[in-house]
Each structure stands twice: as C-alpha cells, then as structure tokens.
Specification:
128 residues, alpha+beta, 4-stranded mixed β-sheet, 3-stranded antiparallel β-sheet
Length: 128
C-alpha cells in the first residue's frame, strides 16, 4: 500500500455535514479567488467508490456544451482537472484558493479568440 500526500480538505457548505455531489457540486460555477469565472463543474474524480468512504480527488471542467445538448459523455481529453485541494469554499459557486491558475481549462476560448474572433475586422480591440 502506498502512502499519498494528503492535501487539506476543502470546506463543506455552511451548515452541511455531508456533501451531496449532485446537489452541492455538479453544474456549479467555479470562480477564482477574485470571483472571476473559471468554468463549470462538469464531473468529479472520486477515489474509493467501492470502499465505505468515497473521496472527491478532483473537479473536472471543460468545454462540453455539445455533449450536454446532443447527449453522451464528454471526451476525457476535453476536461481539465482541478485537484480538490484547490477548492477553498463551497457555496452557490465553487471558489478556488488564491494563487490557483485554472486557465488551462479555458484553452478553447483562447483558441477561438486568437484564430476566429481576431480575424474579424475590429475583433482585436474594444468597440469605440
């Protein structure tokens, strides 16, 4: 058996002793410490599902709108993994700890900005 380094547990929602993943986590907005939107909780990585104490190890977020509309499971390659210890608060949104860089999950938006929007006349600057 291997010993893993244990990260600090993320806090629980105010007044809640047990976290219901469907109620408290899935489809919630993820915001950084400055309250800027980072993404949506699309799925969770859970350890110990067969054991008596399952534990969330990571939040999965990404660009999976089409799979929600058309059905099916989002491709794992499209999901960005945020380790659970990045979470500082669970409320109406999931807040990340200060200093966490969650920008890797926004690659689609950056790609669209650089390759599509940037080629539209006036797309590289704000409207005047």
């Amino acid at each position: 058996m291997t010993n893993r380094l244990r990260a600090p547990d993320a806090p629980r929602p105010d007044g809640v002793r047990l976290i219901d993943a469907r109620l408290h986590l899935l489809d919630r907005q993820i915001v950084d410490a400055q309250r800027e939107p980072v993404g949506i909780v699309d799925d969770l990585l859970i350890d110990g599902v067969c054991g008596s104490h399952p534990e969330v190890t990571a939040i999965l977020t990404g660009q999976v709108l089409f799979t929600r509309i058309l059905g099916g499971h989002p491709p794992r390659s499209q999901l960005h993994e945020l380790p659970w210890h990045f979470v500082s608060r669970i409320g109406t949104s999931i807040t990340l700890r200060p200093g966490v860089d969650a920008s890797a999950g926004q690659w689609v938006e950056r790609w669209l900005r650089d390759h599509i929007i940037g080629r539209i006349p006036g797309g590289r600057h704000a409207a005047q």
